[in-house]
Amino acid sequence: MSKRPVVVVGAGVIGLTVANQLQSSGKYSVTVAAEQVPGSLPAGARESTRWASPWAGANWRAWSSNSDHVLQDMELQTYEKLGELADTSPEAGIQRTQGVDYFGKLADNALPWYAAKLDNAKEIPAEQFPNPTDTIYGLCYPTFIINVPVYLEYLKSRFIGLGGLVEQKSLSHIEESLLLFNPDTLSSMPIVVNCTALGSRVLGGVCDKQMCPVRGQTLVVSAPEAKRTITRVGSKFDYVIPRGDGTVVLGGTAEVGSWEDAADPNTTQRILRHALELEPKLLPQSMVGRPESERMQALRENIISVNVGFRPMRKGGPRLETESFVDTKSSQPFTVVHCYGHAGFGYQSSMGYASKVYQIISAL
């Protein structure tokens, strides 16, 4: 029985996770087509800011609101599968750790939904808040950190190992994805899965003007003693996300609509100051009690890189739906499954969305 051809456009965390889900089923012959793919850059080169996934922290921390049960389900599915990978596939770059969240306010004065869903989640006493003046609630819970460069390479390698194909190719129109196949060998038209994130804003045939960048500036520092992932939400948006290899991502910003790709030195200074407030273990024990200026300078000397990336937000939420097209060359109809617009929660919801795409395609 021949496998149905599928092309996944986009090789970020969503596209690669979807491709793995489909290819591993044994029902589909999957090709990934993307302008940027993991491991394709020459030594010393930096990824394009047009490609969001390499710039992420990343960790599992719920982004869904207490009323968004759809996204909650996607995040919980991913939480379970990240646990399986952490326990069985160390080469994936996923590790268990403790997550700590500090809130400056609570929506509708309600506790975050995952406080009741995650085993061993515990409220943090107020006397342990790093800054009690702007924190009203704290939560610690078991979670995962993801070494992004390692994980993206793992997803690509696993996909290829399953028999999938990767084509590094820039598409100007969604219809061009069909050109990856020889029409004489096809028993049916390929299914196209659009995972182009911010690229969907300009991709011909899609041109989704609801897509909007959310600028994020982060630092990568050397800080091997920092093990927890810490997030502060409220009037400040700060986070400390270890990668599990001695490096830590510090952030950050969330500037909706900004395409500014140059780092702001003042933002770098603020990130350093707030990160030290959240996690003293960013510096050796010998630095405890030293003047703030000395501690700031010590952490600044440990900066590996200052980064700017753009989260792919879609106004109204991610797009997950099918759309019918007709190939202008062959006049044959084909189906596109759209899965993009995950803003800053791509990693922590990726496996849930991949399962949903699989269900949609299985029903076609």
Fold and architecture overview:
The protein has helices spanning 13-24, 69-88, 148-161, 265-278, 292-300, 346-362, and strands at 4-9, 28-34, 94-103, 122-123, 137-146, 165-168, 191-194, 211-222, 229-233, 237-242, 247-251, 255-256, 303-314, 319-326, 333-340. The chain has 364 residues and is α/β, with parallel strands linked by helices. The protein has one domain: 2-Layer Sandwich (D-Amino Acid Oxidase, Chain A, domain 2). The strands form two sheets. Strands 3, 4, 5, 8, 9, 10, 11, 12 and 13 form a nine-stranded mixed beta sheet that branches. Strands 6-2-1-7-15-14 form a six-stranded mixed beta sheet, with helices on one face. Strand 14 (319-326) and strand 15 (333-340) form a beta hairpin. The longest helix is centred in the N-terminal third of the chain and has 20 residues, at 69-88. The model has no long low-confidence stretch (mean pLDDT 95).
CATH class: Alpha Beta
Number of domains: 1
Question: What gross morphology would you assign?
Answer: elongated
Estimate the strand proportion.
25-35%
Q: Which fold name fills CATH's third level, the topology?
A: D-Amino Acid Oxidase, Chain A, domain 2
What is the helix tally? 6
- What is the C-alpha radius of gyration, as a whole number of Å? 21 Å
Helix content: 10-25%
How can the largest sheet be summarized? 9 strands, mixed
**CATH architecture name:** 2-Layer Sandwich
Distance between the amino and carboxyl termini: 17 Å
Main structural class:
alpha/beta
Q: Report mean pLDDT, rounded to a whole number.
A: 95
Instruction: List the helices and strands in order.
Output: EHEHEEEHEEEEEEEHHEEEH
Using DSSP, what is the number of strands? 15
The H-level CATH homologous superfamily, spelled out, is D-Amino Acid Oxidase, subunit A, domain 2
Protein name: FAD dependent oxidoreductase domain-containing protein
Organism: Coemansia thaxteri
InterPro entries: DAO (IPR023209), FAD-dep_OxRdtase (IPR006076)
GO molecular function, one term: FAD binding
